[in-house]
Design a protein that fits this description.
With 481 residues, this protein is an alpha/beta fold. The protein contains eleven helices and 30 strands.
Length: 481
Amino acid sequence: MSIFPIVLSGGIGSRLWPLSREAHPKQFLALMGEETLFQAAMHRLQGLPDCRAPVLVCNEQHRFLAAEQARAMGILPQAMLLEPEGRNTAPAVACAALFALTQDPNALLLVLPADHLILDISAFQQAVVSAVKPANAGWLVTFGIIARQPETGYGYIHKGKPLEDGTTSDAATVFQVNRFIEKPHQEAARAFVDSGEYLWNSGLFLLRADTFLAELAEQAPAILAACRQAMEQSVTDLDFLRLGVQAFLESPSVSIDYAVMEKTQRAAVVPMDAGWSDLGSWSAIWEAEARDLQGNAIFGDVLLDGVRNSHVRAHSRLVTVIGLEDVIIVETADAVLAAARERVQDVKALVARLQQANREERIVHRKMYRPWGSYECLNIEPRFLVKRITVNPGGVLSLQKHNHRAEHWVVVKGCAKVTRGTDSFVLEEDQSTYIPVGMLHRLENPGETSLELIEVQSGDYLGEDDIVRYEDQYGRVSPVT
């Protein structure tokens, strides 16, 4: 028997806009220290008994972010399952369970959202260990957070009687679940906390893979059928396992709570007190951050005067605030959010309006990450665009051409190996080259330090989909992956 950590990283974190965006969501951001939330989720597994390398489940468009952040930690995942589209947590866990059973018929799944905060790793691991015996006995174990104040942004678990069937050596730590409750209003939340009988629903689980799939077959057979077919149709692509697209998209989009946990008679809960937060809003970030004597949490180049109980983040310029209380201000290179702290749950609705208006600020930052490095748009005009391109040591862009734009490259740091038509040459700092429309070209970094260059594009169309790839070491086929 081994524990298979299933790290779910397919969300987009829209409530943390403008920092979290569809192409670079919150789990891949360093919101609470130097590690990203995704890296912190894997870090807290170190030292857990009988724990295998993680199985990652992520959206196809985030695959290189996940792979690079795991590589930076020296972690080689067992598998990286790629969802063609997010279908909530039940299908993601089902596919991970099917994979785990090919490795171990007694596999235990430790289901971990990649975007949560857990401050006390020891307490987390102790809770997991206490759940192993009941999970092996067929209980579907979730972890309930001990609630010390009413919260309307969390679901709740009403714990029942302690398990007394010999599945745990300490019956007081594991309880049957009476019921799950959706996010309550303030008065109900206060009554739940005062009673001492309710826990916050963390979205963390420990489950036998075979037990979970058996329950899924009974409670939500359409999900299981679609996931079985998606796994049968999956294809290996570099270090990734691409789930069968059409089959996976036929699965209903349902959470593991709705699909199984709220219906099963085998739900159990382990109370956990480990400094947990789902970091689901800017207010939650403010609560988790260290704050000054005025109750302010700040990040970046920020100057405050007469400001109290606020969170202010600056990512690209100086931000000054005077005489405000209980506000959230988040500045990025292309967007600023200013909100009353009590209204931060409405950010999701604001992002929906951006989607209706077809605003790209909902999807991308000016700085975009690629498997070879990154690029940042510095200036965009109707017929020209200026980028700063960074290529990691050993990074190689695809062999490509453009049908609508020409490019002028100026190296400002490092050295570049350039393929230009049939020619190949090296550019040093302060040297440049020109790529006409339609010419085959490639950029590489043969050095041991980062390559940086300024790229000026000109033409009648400057979209990222004006790329025709001929060769690519990262296996990309679409122009924006």
